[in-house]
Structures are given as C-alpha cells and as structure tokens.
Design a protein that fits this description.
Helix content: 25-40%
CATH class of the largest domain: Mainly Alpha
Distance between the termini: 104 Å
Structural class: alpha+beta
Strand content: 15-25%
Shape: elongated
Length: about 675
C-alpha cells in the first residue's frame, strides 16, 4: 500500500513538474535568438514572422501597416527611433515616452490586417531590462477579426538566462502562443502594447525585434493548412514519361488539362473558396495567399471549362463557383463595384487599394460567361454586378482611351492610358463597349501603331489613314522577317493572344485581329526557333528563379513590340498553349519538346511556369493566371470554343462581335 502510494506520488510529482516545464517559455521555444546570425535580420530565417525590427524607423511595420498610439484620460504617448539595437550591432529600436494620468493608460498598436500565424509557437520581442523592471503594468494583446482579444503580462514571460546573442541590457520576452488561446490565429487583426497605471506616472520603454516564432517554415506552414491540399512532390517523372508516349493530340492535351485542373481543385482556401495567386514548390516552398480580380475571373472560367470537359460535373462546378462567389460578394470595393487589385484569400482584406482597369475587365468578361453558362444559378447576381461596373469611370474623353487604373489611397487616376490596341488590355475595351459604358469611337481612338513622330519606338510604322466609326484611324504596321504585322507593346505572345480565350477574334475579325494573331504566333515561332536558336518557343511574362526567391518579369520577342521586352532566353509553356487553335500541330510539337528536353518541367499540376533555356533552369512555380490560360485554351480547343461561345451568345458578346467585324488591317 505504501509502495503504491509512493508510486502514485512520484507520478503526480512528475506530472506537476511537466506542467511547470511546459509553462516555461524558454523550454517551450528554446532560445530562437541563438539560431540567427547577428549579421542578419529575422526575415532571413523561415521560423520567424517579423512584425517589426524597427531598423527602418517606427512608421511602417514589416507587415506593411502603420504603428499608431493613443492615450486615455489625458495621458500622452510618443515614439522615437533610436540608434540602438537589442540584437544586432547595427540597427535601431523603438522608444516609447509616456505620461499617464491617474487610473489611465496608453497604447502602442499596429494593425495586422488578417495576418496568418496559425503555426506559431510564441510571440517574442526584446525590451530594455531596466525600463521593464521599473515599469508598472504592461501587457501585449492580440485580437482577431472576429473581435476576440487575449492579453499577456510581459513581465511574466521574461526569458532567463538571456541568450548570448542578445545585447547587454536587453531582455527577451517570450510569450507562448497558448496565452492567446481561443483566438483565430489565421486572421489576426491587431497587436497592442498597453501600459496602465494606478497613479500618475511618466517614463519610457524601448522595444526591438518583435516577431512570431515557430518551427520549420512558419509563414509557409501557416498558409498551407488553409488550403484544400498542397503537393508533396515537385517532379512528376512517370506522368511526364506517360505523356511522351505516342498518342493523338486530343488525348495528349486532355491529359494535360486534367493535371492543370488540379491547381484549381486544390489551391483554394478551405473557408473562402478563393484561389491563391501562386504556389512554389522545390526547396523554397511558398504560397501567395492573395487574389486579384483576374484570378477570380479565371477561377470561374476554369470551373465552367472543367464542367464542359467533364472533369467535374456541372453540379460540382456550380458548387465551387458558389462558394467563391459568396466570398466575392463580401469583398470591399471602390466606386461602381470595382474591385481593388489584391485581397488576402483568408481574411479578404485588400492588400493595396489600387483599382486596375484591365483586371476588372477580365472580371466583367467572366461574369458575362458565368451568366450564360449557369443562368439559373448566377444569372441575376452576375447581371447585377455586371451592370454596376461602369467602365466610363476610366474613360478619358480627351484622348478617347481608358486610364490604366485608380489609386484609392492617393485619390488619383494613374497618369497612363491603355493606348495600343494589340495588348491584353483590350479585354477591358471589349466589355466597356459591349456593355454600352462607352461608345464604339473608343475602339478607333486606340493606336494600331504609335504615332510616327514617337521616334523611340522600335521602327517607323508604315500604313495609311482610314475612317472607322467616323473617326480617322492610322492603320499602321511594322515589318519583321518579311511579314507586316500590328505590334503589341512589348512583343509578348500574351499581349497578342490572351483576349482570344474569351473573344473569337479568329472568326469575327479575320481581316484585322484574327489575321494579326496568326502572324504573331508564326513570328514568335520563327523568332525563338530560328532567329535565336532556342529549342522551344513561347515568350511572355512569367515567374523566374531568382536566387533563393523568385521574380515576375515581362518577356517577349522585342522586334514584335513598340517598346519591346527583352527575351533573355526565358520561355513560358503557357504562352505557346495560347496559340493552340491557331496552329495545334506547332503547339503539340512544342509541348512535347518541353517534356522531352526538360525532365523537371512537369509537376503535379502540369507545366511549370518557365524555363531558362541557356541552363535548363526550371522555376517550380504555378501562377493562377497562367494555369488558367493553359486550361481554358485547351478547353476551347477540345470543345470547339466553349468559353468564347458563352461570351458571344450574351448581348455583350454580340456587340463585341459586330464591333470587330468592321475593321481591316493593312497587312
């Protein structure tokens, strides 16, 4: 009996010891400051989500929001940036100076705007030791977007001993994430430091190196658990080999479409149904957990296309669109229902209050298709939103062109216009004229080639003046490789062909845009394969490997553009797929060459975004826009223009059809 009691007491004591150890932040988190070189900042370590290191002052935080201060009951607080760093031998810190009235408080806080740190283990910061010891009550609190708030006493979580990497005179405050339990850590709204006093007081407190800490890749892991699924493998060798076996083009492209659809199936937020902008696999995994009006548009179009290809049922397509559409309806908007350019997929908060004309043009085109493809389910709602979008807001009557956008933060239109006809931006002109927001004369006011007096353009244009819709138009052209063509801005295949995913320019503009599209595809093939000697073709904006990160740049065949982008040997598989209905044989040969030559070009969702042909470097990244263009292009090819058919059976599409029949390029 005594032995049993002793044994139970040992178990109880061990359990209590475990609980006391678990409550000790230094044992929960270890000493993460020791894992970072003092010569680097927190942002270089994937285990940290930095809120601010104050090295750039105390205005804008690392999460792109501004610090704010306020006092109650006549209390005052101010902040200054001091040239002292608690961790590095260089850098700065934030010093708060306060005067607090009796029974009052001051706050120093920063909006987090839906920040996702759901995989964090704790919140850490550095504080000047002497100032913290002499201070009264100071807490740090987090609040989520549902209005819940939890606070922790900073003094309770001072780490001892202080890590060797921390400068003398500074203490580490290490708050376990359990102190903020019941908060939705995937949608944090604000972080606040609160200083309270029972008696009138004044003093100062200095902060530095404020960050959430986790294990592994905190940012990536926090975003990954929001998604329906995320690929476990980067390269699909067996799938690539299977695609290379002899098979009919229709079968070949259908298999690619099935793989490409996986992006739209998996890379959406579980709660909101919003598609993420991009994902990156390989060693440096990342998730672009934000969405644009174009992303929304291409997700809807992809759902329609997947139904038409019978990859999913019509009922499943409607279900997917409905979930996304309900989130779309809740997004904050500018005037006349126009969307801002980027929103977080988890919180739906806009990340920048800029309104892009062309992005909203794609959204409007998708609404047209949606109300025709699923009229009983989305007809009335799509029509209501479409009617609200008034593109005359962007019309400049002085030159008859559309402005490229509006900066709502600066309360100003962008100073530039979509001047050239042959760019992807003509999708906005199509819907603006098709809806009746602006007249047909706008179409005539766009340049076919830039004015001859603009000597900086690639070449002096040839051509002649004609009249279109009662407006004088210079029907100009360039000449390259003995072919006359109407140039785009940069010479990318995307600029020439992207609008053909929705508008049937080949059928309804055979003497103008349709003819020019064929020439552009032909010239792109000749430029890449013959002039440059590349093994594959498809020059267009894409994502590329950039050290341990990535960057998005514009590429093209420079001689095919008025400005002309450099090509730099960067080829994008999606770009050639845009030409599938113009020359399916050439596109098929190109796709097979990609597969046979580059063994890591094909991943779980089909072709990766780009290859550097000089060194066969693959960027293992998928972009929602580029995946959408591949998928819709194949669907149109296999299903006889299905997406375009929906667009043209709509009143908006019928106006567009009549519009583009009127013109003949002088080629």
């Amino acid at each position: 009996m005594a032995l049993e009691l002793f044994s139970n007491l040992k178990v109880r004591a061990a359990f209590l010891l475990f609980l006391s150890m678990a409550s000790c932040p230094s044992l929960i988190l270890g000493a993460p400051f020791d894992e970072i070189s003092p010569h680097k900042n927190f942002a270089s370590n994937s285990k940290f989500q930095v809120i601010d290191d104050f090295d750039s002052g105390i205005s804008q935080s690392h999460v792109q929001t501004k610090w704010e201060m306020r006092g109650s009951g006549g209390s005052e607080i101010s902040a200054t940036s001091i040239s002292e760093d608690g961790f590095k031998k260089w850098g700065r810190a934030a010093q708060l100076n306060y005067t607090i009235s009796k029974h009052s408080s001051v706050e120093f806080f920063v909006p987090l705007e839906g920040l996702d740190v759901s995989r964090a283990k704790g919140l850490m910061l550095l504080v000047k030791t002497e100032e913290l010891n002499t201070l009264g009550n100071i807490t740090v609190s987090l609040s989520d977007m549902a209005g819940h708030q939890r606070a922790a006493d900073l003094k309770q979580f001072v780490m001892t001993p202080t890590p060797k990497t921390v400068q003398s005179g500074w203490s580490v405050v290490d708050v376990p994430i359990q102190k903020f339990q019941l908060l939705d850590l995937s949608r944090l709204e604000r972080l606040t430091f609160l200083i309270e006093s029972e008696n009138a007081s004044h003093g100062q407190i200095t902060f530095d190196e404020l960050a959430f800490f986790g294990t592994g890749d905190l940012v990536f892991d926090s975003h990954r658990d929001n998604l329906i699924a995320f690929p476990k493998q980067t390269v699909q060798s067996k799938r690539r080999e299977a695609l290379l076996r002899p098979q009919a083009d229709a079968t070949f492209f259908m298999e690619i479409a099935k793989d490409t659809w996986g992006y739209f199936r998996d890379e959406t937020d579980r709660d909101t149904g919003l598609l993420v902008d991009h994902i990156r696999l390989g060693k440096q995994k990342s998730i672009g957990s934000y969405i644009s009006p174009t992303n929304i548009a291409f997700y809807w179009l992809a759902c329609v296309a997947a139904s038409e290809l019978e990859i999913i049922s019509k009922q499943e397509a409607i279900k997917l669109v409905r979930k996304s559409f309900e989130s779309f309806k809740k997004l904050e908007r500018w005037e006349n229902g126009f969307l801002f350019n980027f929103y977080q997929t988890r919180s739906s908060i806009p990340t920048r209050r800029y309104v892009s004309t062309v992005d909203n043009g794609w959204l409007a085109a998708a609404l047209v298709v949606l109300r025709q493809a699923f009229p009983n389910e989305f007809g009335a709602e799509a029509t209501a939103y479409l009617d609200e979008l008034d593109f005359s807001k962007f019309y400049d009557s002085k030159n008859g062109q559309l402005r490229i956008g509006y900066d709502a933060d600066k309360h100003a239109y962008a100073p530039y216009h979509y001047g050239l006809l042959v760019t992807e931006a003509r999708i906005a002109s199509y819907v603006a004229i098709g809806k009746g927001d602006i007249g047909r004369e706008h179409w005539a006011k766009m340049y076919r080639t830039l004015p001859g007096s603009w000597e900086w353009q690639k070449q002096a244009p040839g051509g002649a003046e004609k009249t279109l819709f009662g407006v004088p138009v210079f029907e100009g052209h360039y000449t390259h490789a003995e072919h006359s063509f109407v140039p785009s801005w940069g010479g990318s295949l995307f600029e020439f062909l992207a609008p053909t995913l929705v508008v049937d320019e080949q059928a309804f503009a055979p003497k103008s845009l349709g003819k020019n599209n064929r020439l552009a595809a032909q010239l792109h093939v000749e430029y890449a394969l013959h002039e440059k000697g590349y093994p594959v073709w498809g020059l267009a904006p894409c994502a590329i490997q950039n050290g341990n990160g990535w960057s998005y740049r514009e590429y093209g065949a420079p001689e095919l553009g008025a400005k002309g982008y450099s090509d730099l040997g960067i080829v994008a598989p999606y770009a050639s797929l845009l030409a599938i209905e113009i020359d399916s044989d050439a596109v098929s040969r190109n796709a097979r060459e990609f597969l046979s030559r580059y063994k890591t070009i094909y991943g779980p969702y089909g072709f990766y975004d780009s290859v550097q042909v000089s060194n066969s470097g693959i960027n293992p990244q998928y972009l929602a826009l580029d995946q959408g263009m591949i998928f819709i292009a194949i669907a149109n090819y296999l299903k006889h223009g299905t997406i375009r058919n929906y667009f043209h059976q709509d009143p908006v599409g019928k106006v567009v059809q009549e519009l583009i029949q009127e013109e003949e390029f002088l080629l």
